[in-house]
Amino acid sequence: MSSNLPQCMTVNLSPILDFFNCPICTEQLTNTCTTVCGHRFCHKCIEECIDRRSQCPLCMRFLNSSHVSKDFQYDELIRVVIDQKVKGEELYFKRLADEATQNAFSKEENLSPVEQVLQKHLKNSLASYESYLHKIKLDYSRKLEECKQKMTSRRMQSLSMNGKVELKQKEIEAECKKEQQKIQDELDRAIELLAQSYDMYLSKNLPQPSTLPVKSTLFIECFDLTIPDFEIGPMERISEIIPRLTDTIHCLGHDIIGVGKDVKFLLAKGNTYREDNVKGAEAESDSIIQLELNTKPVIECGLQPGGEIRITGQLLQRSDLPKQCIIKTFTVGNKVDYSTCTTCNINWVCETCAETCHAKHDTKPYIAGHSPQWPCCYCPKKKLCKIKNN
User: Fold this and answer.
1) Pick from 205, 232, 261: which residue ends a domain?
2) How many whole angstroms from its chain centre is CA 219?
3) Does Phosphoprotein appear among the keywords (predicted)?
4) Which residue, 78, 173, 340, 346, has fewest beta-carbon neighbours within 10 Å?
């Protein structure tokens, strides 16, 4: 039969879904069977019922296996309706997110970049809420499932009893509804508490623009290196930025271990540099601010998004440090390449001593990638080491 109903028409499924539940197990019908008396049950449920009492559990009519037939069309109907229900729920939450963002921001005006960010996160938050809520509902669905299984077991036991079967069934039904309502109340309470938690968290944590970190550009003159999108917190001091800066530079291929005493952090007023001001810029310059170690560039100097901090002076590299023998730098587990010096007639010469003390000697590899358990180097042991402080 063709339908002329509009595609956008919605139908309340609550009263319909009740007809998809088996009267015996109260769960969704599976492998639906119809009896000659016109009742529908799960195949497994009605077969067990017939085996025990040979009668319909609803009208008490005599039944045997020949009085039961598979209802494939009803199974297909259930599948289609449930699929449409799931799609409808997804569409509902999508419309909810769209309506929320449309109400929060004017359609008539183009959204600013900040408004676009807020709109995006509002949609994402609603989608995340839907996913989280789905998990909560699954937990409570499992509780309902356990409750239904328990009640089904009791119903099946009552069918094998003699006497007031109908009265017993009604008592079990009432108890089942009471237990299900209790579980539903717990779910409603959990959702209410979730909403309260969201409200409290957003009230405390929704940031004001002045408290947001700023993405700036760092330019390191000694390496002619530009680091874009370096995030600086509003309360972050230069002294707190330096460790992150050295880590970033190290990841870019420079073996940095710290900053020298001559290093200066410079910020141009208005975040715009002119080359004549930058070259040899001093702290007294009208257009350049020198940032001290305890300076907070965002809240104290007005560093803006996209602003540039220039770093002058020399950054300390590991290669600038004095060479040291392994007896000074030993760490258990570190691997060492040992050499043999035939000129001095000794083995077990560490890599540093081989490059420094025995640089002009006849050396060759002895053991590569060795992990010593103690600071072993025969160069200082034989009093041949020329490295200071060894």
Assistant:
1) 205
2) 32
3) no
4) 173
CA distance 348 to 343: 14
d(CA 355, CA 112): 61
Q: Is the domain of 50 the same as that of 162? A: yes
Shared-domain flag, residues 335 and 291: no
Chain segment 37-76, per-residue pLDDT in tens: 999 999 998 998 888 888 888 888 899 989 999 999 999 9
Higher pLDDT, 97 or 305: 305
Look at residue 365 and tell me if it is in a domain: yes
Query: How far apart are alpha carbons 6 and 182 in whole angstroms?
Result: 39
3-class secondary structure, 112: coil
Do 170 and 25 share a structural domain?
yes
Q: Are 238 and 300 in contact (CB under 8 A)?
A: no
At 332, the amino acid letter reads: V
Confidence (pTM)? 0.39
Give yes or no for residue 31 having a pLDDT over 90: yes
Domains contained in the chain, number: 3
Q: In this predicted model, what pLDDT tens digit does every residue of 169-214 receive, in sequence order?
A: 677 777 878 888 888 888 888 778 777 877 777 666 666 666 678 8
Number of H helices, E strands in the chain: 10, 13
- Supply 298's token pair: 């965002």
Chain centroid, CA 336 distance in Å: 40
Contacts of 356 (CB under 8 A, 6+ apart): 323, 386, 387
Which candidate, 215, 261, 219, 266, places its Cα nearest to that of 238?
266
- Distance (Å, rounded) from C-alpha 252 to C-alpha 266? 22
pLDDT tens column, 329-384? 888 888 899 999 999 999 999 988 998 889 889 999 999 999 898 889 999 888 88
Instruction: Read off the pLDDT of each residue in 215-231 and give the average, rounded to a whole number.
Output: 89
Give the Cα separation of 198 and 285 in Å (integer). Answer: 49
**pLDDT higher than 60, residue 162:** no
Domain membership flag for residue 84? yes
Q: Does 389 map to a domain?
A: no
Q: Which domain holds residue 284?
A: 214-319
Percent of the chain with pLDDT over 70: 74
The residue out of 163, 179, 205 marking a domain boundary is: 205
Same domain as 255, residue 112? no
Q: What tokens were used for 200?
A: 């409290």
* Residues 6+ positions from 237 with CB-CB distance below 8 Å: 293, 294, 295, 296
